[in-house]
Amino acid sequence: MNAAHPAASRRLAGDSVGHYEGDTLVIDTVGQKVGRWSMMDLFGTPFSGSLHVVEPISLDRRRCGA
């Protein structure tokens, strides 16, 4: 959490770091390995080495009873 991405690291699923923005967890992923079998999803959507994914995750308080 709250860490920087390592310099020039390529991993199959990339390198993810997270931080909170209020009640929302934000996951930032870079460095996905690009190669013959690289794909973003089950449909085989291709991507390049410059892919940068930002995932905001927040709790739906109506469903958890909070």
User: N-to-C terminal Cα separation, in Å?
Assistant: 25 Å
Classify the beta-strand content into a percent band: 25-35%
State the secondary-structure class: mainly beta
Residues in helix, %: under 10%
What's the helix count?
Answer: 1
- Widest sheet: strand ordering: 1-2-3
How many runs of DSSP E, i.e. beta strands?
3
Largest sheet: 3 strands, antiparallel
Overall pLDDT score = 80
Which residue ranges are poorly predicted, with pLDDT under 50 across at least 5 consecutive positions? none
What integer value in Å does the Rg equal? 15 Å
Please tell me what the overall shape is. Answer: flat
The ordered string of helix (H) and strand (E) elements is: EEEH
Description:
The structure is a single chain. The chain is mainly beta. The chain is built from one helix and three strands; from the N terminus they run βββα. Strands 1-2-3 form a three-stranded antiparallel beta sheet, with no helix packed on it. The longest helix is centred in the last third of the chain and has 4 residues. The radius of gyration is 15 Å and the shape is flat.
Essential attributes:
3-stranded antiparallel β-sheet, 66 residues, 1 helix, 29% strand, mainly beta, 6% helix, 3 strands
